[in-house]
Amino acid sequence: MLRTNSKKYLSNMEKYLLGQIDGTDYGTTTDTPQEKMQFVFDCFTKEYECEYAKRRTPNYQQRVGEWLSGLPTCINIPCYAYDILELAKELQEIKGDTKEKWEEAVLKNYFNFMAYHLIKLHNKYSNSLYSSEYNQTEQIKPTKMTTSTTTKKEKVLTEIFNSDYQGILDNTVTEYFDKYKQNLRRKGNNIFSYDTRVAIIKGNELFEMGWWSVTTQKHINYAAKELGLELVKHEKESKIYFHKNIMGGIK
């Protein structure tokens, strides 16, 4: 298991992130690390870096993390809990099972962590010459996700997810439960475990938004019971329920 500050881990992360950036659909050349970093942060500036975002989230790294949580098309990184954990294991070269505490830490800090490394790469390549040592064939490939037929329920949930997300960023009152007060909360129709949205309320049902750890599943089960809602379980093979880390937006 590699330390996240080790040279090998940092090399793994750099090759992975550079391999996930492609400006072809934008009509932009992204052959070198400099071009890739310039392209990504140009997209960030155009898509997210406004005065409102700066006032709401003064920290630059957190703003980049919030932008990544919206899944920009200029960079392809995992958004499902299972795939995030598989990527983390691959980058740290972990074999075998991992502890629940480690998994929770990875999921909680994922987008902010990726933002940190993107900013670090941007700083590295913004004023440096292209290195011939960078080899496209050495990139760590992202975990492949199997495809599945989109069911009627998945279509409904996709609609719920897209329509309800904006409410998180508004001044909705945050409500706390009697149990798990520090780590479980409700904001509008959204249920958060730690800083991750894990379930959504629709009518008299609570829809899980991912395949979670044991602790987070306890949070979801408790929320459903306390709110008197029927819990709609997540199907592991589904590709609909992904979570978004709000990076402090629910504090």
Notable features of this structure?
six-stranded mixed beta sheet; 251 residues; 10% strand; 9 helices; globular; 2 domains; disordered C terminus; alpha+beta
3D architecture notes:
The chain is of the alpha+beta class. It folds into two domains: 7-138, no CATH class; 152-232, no CATH class. The protein contains nine helices and six strands. A hairpin with a 2-residue loop joins strand 3 (190-193) and strand 4 (196-202).
List the helices and strands and how they pair.
Layout: H1 7-19, H2 33-47, H3 51-56, H4 60-69, H5 81-91, H6 100-125, H7 152-164, H8 166-169, E1 174-176, E2 184-187, E3 190-193, E4 196-202, E5 205-208, H9 214-227, E6 230-232
Parallel strand pairs: 5-6
Antiparallel strand pairs: 1-2, 2-3, 3-4, 4-5
- With helices defined by DSSP (H or I, 4 residues minimum), what is the helix count? 9
Average of the residue pLDDT scores: 78
Strand tally = 6
Strand order of the largest sheet: 1-2-3-4-5-6
Whole-angstrom Rg: 19 Å
- Along the chain, the helix and strand elements come as HHHHHHHHEEEEEHE
Low-confidence stretches: 128-150, 164-170, 236-251
In short:
With 251 residues, the protein is an alpha+beta fold. The protein has helices spanning 7-19, 33-47, 51-56, 60-69, 81-91, 100-125, 152-164, 166-169, 214-227, and strands spanning 174-176, 184-187, 190-193, 196-202, 205-208, 230-232.
